[in-house]
Every structure is written in structure tokens, then in C-alpha cells.
Amino acid sequence: MQGDLIKVRQSYAEVLATQRRLQTQKEQADKMAEDWYKRAEMAVEKGDDELAKEALTRRQTSVTKASDLGAQIDAMTGNVEKLFESVKALEAKISQAKEEKEQLIARARTAKTTAQVNEMLSDVTSVGSTGAFDRMKEKVEMLETRAEVSQGLLPEAQASGSLEDRFKQLEAGSAVDDELAKMKGKKALTENSAIDDELAAMRKKLQDTH
């Protein structure tokens, strides 16, 4: 089809060039006829009838030539218009064919992609891939939950964690207090024993003196 368009365009260009060339020749013949008529008038004014007749004869030849050229131009006008319409029609067909080709290519690519996606989905939903798919889903959900916790999107969990920390601190404080009390009691007991021993020594020394 592209080759036909090239041929029609060439024919159209050739016919159009010929028509323009004939039009130029006709305009030249018309001008020549006008010039010979003016010369004939000038010869008559000068009283030279023989020269006037010769000028009129030449004028008639130019008029006849211009008339013939005009007829050829008129005949070619129809052919030029038909060739022009043929060029436009072929261009429209080629443009339409190009669009249809692009649409078919797009449809083929879409069909190929759809087939690939369906094949992937078929693999995912198969028995062997179901477990892997579930594990992937669990991992994603776990990551989402961690992200929510880190962003403070679970206030109850945070509050519970804070309360747990407070109880742990309280328990740790109680243990420290108990240990401190034991140390104080032990120290007090030690101090009392030392005082008692010192008092007994003083009493014994006093008795020995008497």
C-alpha cells in the first residue's frame, strides 16, 4: 500500500507539473496574441496594410495556440483532481492501517502480560506455594504490627508495658528495703552485743578491784 501511495504521488506531481507548464505556455500565447494585435493597429495607423495583415495572421496563430492549450489544461484539471483525491484516500487508508497495527500490537502485549500474570497467580495458588504465600503474609503482618508499636499506634500495649515497669520497679524497691532492714537489724544486734560485752568487762574489772 505504501508503494501504491508513492506511485500515485509521483503521477500526481507529474500531471500537476505538466498542467502548470501548459498554463505558462497559454499565458505566453495570450500575451503574444495581444502584442501582434497592437502591432497590427500600429501598421494600420501608418497606412501599411500588408504589414497589418501579417501581424493579424501571427496574432491568429497565437490565439489558436492559446485556445488549444486552454483545452488541454481543462482536460487535465479533472485528472489532477482525481489523482489528488486518490492520494488523500491512500493516505487515510495507510494511517488507519498504522493505527490498527499499533492497536493489535498493544493488544498482543496486553494478552501476553495477562497470561504471565495468570501464570504467576496459578503458581501462587498451587499447593506447593500456598505455605510460602502464608508465611510471607505472616511476615508482612508482623512487620506491620512492629511498625505500629514503634510509632505508638497501640496505646493499650504501651500503657500495659508502662504499668508492668512500674510494678517491677516497686518490687525491686521492696526488695531493696527488705535488704536494708536486715542490714540495719544485724548492725543493731552487733552493736548491742558489743555494748553488752563492754559492760560485762567493766563490771568484772570493778569486781577485781574490790
UniProtKB/TrEMBL annotation:
The keyword Coiled coil applies. Keywords: Coiled coil. The keyword GTP-binding does not apply. It comes from the Eukaryota. Residues 73-114 form a coiled coil. Belongs to the PspA/Vipp/IM30 family. PANTHER family: MEMBRANE-ASSOCIATED PROTEIN VIPP1, CHLOROPLASTIC, PHAGE SHOCK PROTEIN A. This is Membrane-associated 30 kDa protein, chloroplastic. It comes from Symbiodinium necroappetens.
